[in-house]
Amino acid sequence: MLDEYEPRAGRTLQEFEWEFTIQGSSGETWWDWDGQAPNNGFLGEPLETNHFPSELRLDRLGSNAGGYLSPEGTPLAQRATPPGLATQYHVFEGTGRPIPLGKDNWVVQHGPAKEVFGQPGGGEQWIVLDQSTRRPVPVEELIKARLLKEIDRPE
């Protein structure tokens, strides 16, 4: 998964932060997701569906409060992930269930990740987009909605 992944893409820490982060009025720094990865990080228009295919295995780096997933084992460089997000690792399986009633503004999207944060991208990414907020739905909500189930990884 770490093949070809250079966390700062050959930049010094200062160069990387200058190019890929934004700073708030109180001095806090965060990733410039909207400026660096518009369209939720998709390269072009993603495909849309109403479910995760049954038995599709996806994984996630980071907490389940985030919404981005990739096919299990997709290299970090292809996910175009900034450094420091790979603190937790989770594996999921699609249930094949459609988006539940009452979640009419949710849509499952998937497609290649664009080049961003100095990484080449190109790996497939999956999200459930909340069309009312234009943001990915957190994985923890997708589990509650029974669209995904978290599975144990073999040791």
Question: How would you describe this structure to a colleague?
Answer:
- This is DUF4237 domain-containing protein.
- The protein is of the alpha+beta class and 155 residues long.
- The chain has one domain.
- 14% of the residues lie in helices and 27% in strands.
- The strands form three sheets. The chain has a four-stranded antiparallel beta sheet, with no helix packed on it. A four-stranded antiparallel beta sheet has the order 5-4-6-10. Strands 1-2 form a two-stranded antiparallel sheet.
- A hairpin with a 4-residue loop joins β8 and β9.
Mean pLDDT, as a whole number?
Answer: 92
Rg for CA atoms: 16 Å
The string of secondary-structure elements, in order, is HEEHEEEHEEEEHE
Find the count of extended strands (DSSP E, 2+ residues). Answer: 10
- Low-confidence segments, given as residue ranges, are none
Strand content range: 25-35%
Strand count, sense and barrel status of the largest sheet are: 4 strands, antiparallel
Strand order of the largest sheet: 3-7-8-9
Count of alpha and pi helical runs = 4
Question: What proportion of the residues is helical, as a percent range?
Answer: 10-25%
Distance between the termini: 16 Å
Helix and strand composition category: alpha+beta
Q: What is the molecular shape?
A: globular
Oligomerization: single chain
Give the total of domains. 1
